[in-house]
Structures are given as structure tokens and as C-alpha cells.
């Protein structure tokens, strides 16, 4: 009954590869997010989706592309992976997408680019 | 860039001690939230604050929304080993449409 679930938990890959991380929420929330947590544990928002529309797109490389087949899913595709992409990526959701809302996070995907 | 200053960066305490951490900013916030991240997991919401001066408790945790709306603190009383983790403050800026996170306070509790 996990509220926000993401897969895989760990992802180890070579530079230049393309990979995807999947996320699903069963909370009935309208908005989903992707956050990146660097080695210093700093959390930075990457994207959010509300009803299949991108509403926040921070200054991330265009190698990163979120894809949402429906409001319960938000996948993250990464092309041409680079060493600096190594981090923990968290999916999250909130009820309506208001900036002051509580966020519900997944357990993270630790990406290691070799 | 980051607009929240969270301190301390880390704390090492003995079981049973009280803990205090805070977040400050030069900007005015409409909302403060406190999250805890256990190792290998995502952050989990502890307390949400929506009004200046608001004081809210959740078990042994107490958090306050600063009266100037530029700061917030989180206290943990009578710490126990399972309090170990990273505590994040997060705030919604008054004139901004996203949530900003502090850099986190890493708490270690020695039995």
C-alpha cells in the first residue's frame, strides 16, 4: 500500500547510456514532482506535472525529460548520462500542486553513473 | 539559488537530550514545513506551519513559525535512537510559486 513508489531503487550505468526511472502514486493527487538530492543531501526540484501539464521546469539539462501517461504516473527519462548525474532522485506528489502544500515522497532512486 | 539557512548542519547528542534546530531567511515565507529523512528513504512530513507565531506539536516534536515570518525552529524533546536522520525545513516564499528546502540537519543520537 505504498503511497508513492518509484523503481528501481538502485541504478548503476555507464556514461552515455539512456535510462528511465518510474514513479506511481495511489493517493489520488493531482500533482507529481521529481527532486534531485546531491551528495550533500541538498534537495532541488526538477519538474512537476499537474493533470498532464508541466507547470514547473527548473533549469535542468534537456537530457532530462519527464513523461506522464496519466496523473498517477510520472516517469523520468535521462539521455546521454553524465558523471554529474549521479545522485538520488525522488518522486513526490501533492494534492493540488499549490506551492505551500505537503509533499509525499517516494523512497528514492540512487543513480550511479560510471 | 538556496534562500534558506538551516543550522546546525549536524548534531551529535546523547539519548534523552533535547534538540533544537532552526531555519532562517532574509525573505518572508508564507508556509514552513519540517521533514525528516531516514537513511535510504524519502523525506516524510513532520509538522506544517501556516501562520506567523504558530506553535505546533507532534508528539515529542514542537515547531514554531517565527513572528517575523523569516524563521522557524524545530525542537525534539527526550531524544531516542530512532530520531536519527536528516531534518529538513522547507518554506514557501511569499512571492514565489515553489517550495525551497534547507540544506538539512543531520542528527545522530548515541544510546
Tell me the radius of gyration of chain B.
Answer: 13 Å
Q: Tell me the number of helical segments of chain B per DSSP (H or I, 4 or more residues long).
A: 0
Count of DSSP-assigned helices of chain A? 0
**Count of β-strands of chain A:** 11
- The helical percent of chain B reads under 10%
What is the terminal-to-terminal distance of chain B?
Answer: 38 Å
N-end to C-end Cα span of chain A: 34 Å
Helical fraction of chain A: under 10%
Radius of gyration of chain A: 13 Å
Number of β-strand runs of chain B: 11
Question: Please, could you describe this protein's structure?
Answer:
The complex is a heterodimer of chains A (114) and B (111). In chain A, a hairpin with a 5-residue loop joins strand 4 and strand 5 (43-50). Chain A contains no helices and eleven strands. With 114 residues, chain A is mainly beta. Chain A is globular and about 35 Å long. In chain A, the strands form two sheets. In chain A, strands 2, 4, 5, 6, 9, 10 and 11 form a seven-stranded mixed beta sheet that branches. Chain A has a four-stranded antiparallel beta sheet with strand order 1-3-8-7, with no helix packed on it. Chain B is an all-beta fold. In chain B, strands 2, 4, 5, 9, 10 and 11 form a six-stranded mixed beta sheet that branches. Chain B has a five-stranded antiparallel beta sheet with strand order 1-3-8-7-6, with no helix packed on it. In chain B, a hairpin with a 5-residue loop joins strand 9 and strand 10. Chain B is globular, with a radius of gyration of 13 Å. The interface between A and B is medium-sized, with 19 and 26 residues.
Amino acid at each position: 500500500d505504498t503511497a508513492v513508489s518509484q523503481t528501481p531503487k538502485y541504478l548503476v550505468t555507464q556514461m552515455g547510456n539512456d535510462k528511465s526511472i518510474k514513479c506511481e502514486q495511489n493517493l489520488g493527487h493531482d500533482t507529481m514532482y521529481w527532486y534531485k538530492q546531491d551528495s550533500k543531501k541538498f534537495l532541488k526540484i526538477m519538474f512537476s506535472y499537474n493533470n498532464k501539464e508541466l507547470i514547473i521546469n527548473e533549469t535542468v539539462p534537456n537530457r532530462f525529460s519527464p513523461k506522464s501517461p496519466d496523473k498517477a504516473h510520472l516517469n523520468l527519462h535521462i539521455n546521454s548520462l553524465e558523471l554529474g548525474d549521479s545522485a538520488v532522485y525522488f518522486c513526490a506528489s501533492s494534492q493540488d500542486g499549490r506551492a505551500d502544500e505537503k509533499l509525499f515522497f517516494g523512497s528514492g532512486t540512487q543513480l550511479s553513473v560510471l | 539559488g538556496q534562500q534558506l539557512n538551516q543550522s546546525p548542519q549536524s548534531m551529535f547528542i546523547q539519548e534523552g537530550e533535547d534538540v533544537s534546530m532552526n531555519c532562517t531567511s532574509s525573505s518572508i515565507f508564507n508556509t514552513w514545513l519540517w521533514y525528516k529523512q531516514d537513511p535510504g528513504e524519502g523525506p516524510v512530513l513532520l509538522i506544517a506551519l501556516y501562520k506567523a507565531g504558530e506553535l505546533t506539536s507532534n508528539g515529542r516534536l514542537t515547531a514554531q513559525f517565527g513572528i517575523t515570518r523569516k524563521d522557524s525552529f524545530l525542537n525534539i524533546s527526550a531524544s531516542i535512537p530512532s530520531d536519527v536522520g536528516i531534518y529538513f525545513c522547507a518554506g514557501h516564499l511569499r512571492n514565489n510559486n515553489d517550495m525551497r528546502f534547507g540544506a538539512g540537519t543531520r542528527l545522530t543520537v548515541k544510546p
